[in-house]
Amino acid sequence: MNIKNKKWTVALLCALAAGASMAVSAQSDTLVSKPKPNIVHILTDDLGWQDIACYYRAIHGEESVYETPHMDRLAAKGRRFMQAYSAAPTCAPSRAAYMAGQYTPHTGVLSVLGGRLARPYNARHAYIDPFYSCRLNIDTPIIADVLKEAGYTTAHIQKWHVGGRSESYPGPLDYGFDFSWDWRNMYYNDPELYDPSDKKTANTNGVYSPMSPDRITGFAASYDPRDPYTLDPNDDDRPFDSVVDLSLRWMEKVRGAGKPFFMNFCTKFVHSPFSTRDRKRLEHYCKKMGVPFPTDPGRIATMDPGFRNPYYAAMLDTLDWQVGKILTYLETTDDPRNPGHKLIDNTYIMVSSDNGGLERAPIARGSDRGRPERVTDNTPLNAGKHKVFEGGIRIPFIIAGPGIEQGSVCDTPIHLIDLFPTYMAMAGAEPETELDLDGCNVLPVFLGQESDVTFADGTVRDTLFWHQPSVMAASSIIRKGGWKLRINYAPELNGLPPIMLYRLYNDDGSVCDLGEANNLAESHPEKTNAMLAELQEWLAKNDAAMPYKNAQQVGGARMPGADRVPTVLERQSAGNRLEVIVETGADKSKVVEAKLIYTTNGSKLLLDGGRAQEEWFEAPAEISGGTATAIAPPGMTHGVFYLRDENGFLITSEPLPSIAGPGSNKSAGSDLIEDGYAFRPGLLSLIDLAVSAKENAHKAGLNTGLLNQAIQSAKAVAKAPVEEKSYVLSMRALRKAIKSLDVPEAKLPVLNQFVTEKW
Q1: How many domains does the chain have?
Q2: C-beta separation of 188 from 246 below 8 A
Q3: pLDDT number for residue 558
Q4: Residue 33 has what pLDDT?
Q5: pTM (2 decimals)?
Q6: Terminal CA-CA length for the chain
Q7: Which helix (H) or strand (E) holds 43?
Q8: Of 531, 549, 567, which closes a domain?
């Protein structure tokens, strides 16, 4: 099978080959009489738990200032979940977890600033983020893979944030979607649907596009049909949105192809910047909130509680309109695979969010630049986006579709990682252990057939986990039943207790402390210890990366053990073998962990420009006494050892300045380091790999002329003093020569981290 070497088993293949159109037996009555259902997921960006009016109404018993008639209509057609969760309080880790059906330690994407050298945000901070990847491993099976194998046509539209830095390689198409944008130019890959010369329909961000030069300039005002934001007099003067228009045209094209479709519609609403091109909606909410229409782009909302930001309200209104356009299309369009019915009759359509709502943000421009502004309010939940309190991870989730009771409400906890196995069940694919999913099939809960979520073996799931090691909110969490325990790794930084225990719900399911106001850790030691032990066992099982302590912290009381951190004595390399030696002795702490963090594009000569950025990866290293060793990955341009001592302090093979504070340096990556085992060790490893590729090519009877030439040239370069250009060009030539041959070496991940021309 051509699925990028992803793992599939005979059981799954047989089920798919047989064209199974039924889910597990519990769902067969719903699905057997119809063709496989379409699946549409509208994954919003930063939508708060109670931002949808029907949620607010249910929680507070009164009408919301926000108006969301279309999402309310969807809830009336289906089921609203009151305890749905994202995998993280920020977008990248949550989206990667959703795509892979795995918790964040499993995917390796832990927060939003991955693929960079980990160093202190501020020299005064006591903790440092661990290194983590910015991308989901390209070989990880994702939702698109299993649905394509089940006979689906798949599309991803707009925000991704799962691949390389700045939406570079790999993009949605590289991970397996049939239709999406190409990371090289952001063009969608079907010329029948996307013409880059059409400035109206090819507007990448659509009506979300940020205003320029500020948020009171550039409102949609034209009825010219060629205008990218032309107003529609037949739709209450709504500005045109190329993104939702593309989604409708894609569904219109594929609905008649005889296959079910999956559309992953990932709108950028309601993420910052907080502005709107829809002047009419902004005027409406200014009037409704008692706020004068802005004449300055500065602060419009104080930090007082409540919904008081008309920019955000107008953005939410536009999001709701997008949902309405998609829902109306499904309701009014005939289904060729299901004669006599509309598409909605055999489509599961969902609305959710990648994390909780953002409660505050600094003003970007205007007289109040830098001052905080209220965005939304998640009360009664505590906090919002970026925080691991309920306000940061609890999300709205609404689903409608075949067999789902209209207007129903469910209090069963579900999680975005559950959607992967649930989509499999919708598509008729059998559960498969080799996919290594952490989520559960919740289709029986969607259908109201079960009130509990169960694992594939039938056991009830009563526990959920989170791991967010990013410094300001560095925490691990377990929710078990109505209880939630949090380990806080940075109490000196955020001022919160190291262990927090909250009772969200009573045993009868009634609300107890959704605001997480009462820490019960000391008053309930048995519950605390039991949940702490279970959480620590899960973290160890998943080899979860932890924050480092900062031995070089400037100012404040130094943490215990900082005076025992060993100093680097020597940094050296022999061929492609790298080594760093640190102090040992009775007065020095023991180094207990070592890893090599490296990059293969640490030169402008290897970057194609545009959005291309230097990206760092992790390789294994060994520690023996005071010496850490590693073999340079083929093509490594720079590397840094990351060592952890027995007290959790970070030691790097050479100093890394903080991003801010005393002695800081805002440069990035290889510009920060003086040595970095630059170029030669990585070239030597690449030469060794090329020699191995040559041997395999000979066995296969392949022409190795180009590879021979590249090897000989590289060997000559490696004997000369390190000079960036000659070494980089040799690496590029070797990589291209190896990859031109059908040999195992050409398929190694280290040779396929990027696909740019210069690399």
Answers
A1: 3
A2: yes
A3: 84
A4: 62
A5: 0.94
A6: 28
A7: strand 38-44
A8: 549
